[in-house]
Amino acid sequence: METRSEKPILAVLAGERRDPPPVWFMRQAGRYLPEYRELRADRGGFLDLVYDADAAAEVTLQPLRRYGFDAAILFSDILIVPHAMGQHLQFLAGEGPDLSPRLAEVALETLSPVPDRLDAIYRTVAKVKADLPTWATLIGFAGSPWTVATYMVNGSGSKEQAAARTMAYAEPQRFQALIDGISSMTVDYLCGQVAAGAEVLQLFDSWSGSLAPDEFDRWCVRPTREIVDQVRARCPGIPIIGFPKGAGGKLAHYARETQVDAIGLDESVDPFWADQVLPANLPVQGNLDPMVLLTGGSRLDGAVARIRTALAGRPHIFNLGHGISKETPLAHVDQALRAIRAKGAAQ
Fold first, then answer.
1. Which of 62, 111, 117, 195 is the most buried (most CB within 10 A)?
2. Is there a catalytic annotation at residue 117?
3. Given pLDDT bands bounded at 50, 70 and 90, which one contains residue 346?
4. Is 301 a catalytic residue?
5. How many CA atoms lie within 13 A of 16 on its CB side?
6. How far apart, in whole angstroms, are the C-alpha atoms of residue 130 and residue 195?
7. What confidence category does residue 179 fall into, taking pLDDT thresholds of 50, 70 and 90?
8. CB of 227 within 8 A of CB of 168?
9. CATH of 4-341 given 3.20.20.210, 3.60.110.10, 3.30.230.10, 3.20.20.70
């Protein structure tokens, strides 16, 4: 039987420092890969692909076959949770996700939950786990309640999350009920992924940076802590990574109060600063700018070296600060991985 030390990601999340650090990339399964584009053309729309367990498992494993990443992250979407809560979900070409009815206009209680919509995702997890390379860790995920709520309220993505922020100020009890509903479904969803084979979980709070400090604490930190506590009670020992994109100066508060096992840094965070302010020995994940990966050349090598140097004194999983751009040349991914995997490269 495999032990934690045989999987570098799990070793780092348990507190080990590795040289070189293990690596995976957010959105590593996706449109920059020709094999993904070929499969997508054959299988149809994005949501069709997500709910096709055979195809979704294949997509999840594609980047491991090409690059040998240390982790596979489930190919899915954070909006599967509102879909299971009863909103209609579609992805419109050139426009992104569309959820209806908008909760800015109707009450949460009018939705009829359809938890069976999660079953295909669990089948994907099980299929990936069955074919996972021995060195690789399988990461499951969900969106954090605040970020998921912004889509449910507005019915689509928005730059300032104005509809959700307004509801949170004007109707805090109603908004709290929504957050509570998302949290409850998310705990079930994450534990279902663990039961199917996920070894690590990540919570994506993509829009946490739009919240004022008190609102950040109320809608980002507290719900995340509740999810962490409930998942740990039901799934003891499962590591949880928190990724509060845009949190900036609130990162240390998030790390202390949520009690996540590791914290993801977005590309705007100075890793030297993060190393100074975050709790000692807390594993950190990140945080190469996807645009420098897109650019390549000496700037890419320099950026990799700087991050490795900054985080050499604590457990570190190398990753991007956000998802890989679909225009990223494959040769630049090769270049980045050579720099990341060079032993002793951090100075």
1. 62
2. no
3. low
4. no
5. 15
6. 13
7. very high
8. no
9. 3.20.20.210
Q: Measured between alpha carbons, how far is 13 from 299 in angstroms, rounded to an integer?
A: 29
pLDDT of residue 345: 57
d(CA 193, CA 140): 6
40 has catalytic annotation: yes
Residues 229, 243: Cα–Cα separation, whole Å: 17
Strands, E, within 66-215: which ranges? 71-73, 88-92, 96-100, 137-143, 200-205
The residue from 77, 266, 275, 289 that is catalytic is 77
Q: Considering 32, 36, 40, 222, which one is annotated as catalytic?
A: 40
The active-site residue out of 51, 151, 189, 254 is 151
Tell me the two tokens of residue 109.
């209680």
pLDDT for position 4: 37
Listed by start position, the domains of the chain span 4-341
Q: Would the pTM of this model clear 0.85, i.e. be above it?
A: yes
pLDDT in tens, 190-199: 999 999 999 9
Q: How far, in Å, CA of 219 to CA of 241, rounded? A: 18
Digit-coded pLDDT (tens) for 219-254: 999 999 999 999 999 999 999 999 999 999 999 999
Out of 18, 31, 43, 234, which one is annotated catalytic? Answer: 31
Residues with Cβ within 8 Å of 233's Cβ and at least 6 positions away in sequence, in order, are: none
pLDDT of residue 159: 83
* 27 is known as an active-site residue: yes
- The one catalytic residue in 27, 218, 308, 314 is 27
Phi, psi of 167 (to 5 degrees): -60, -40
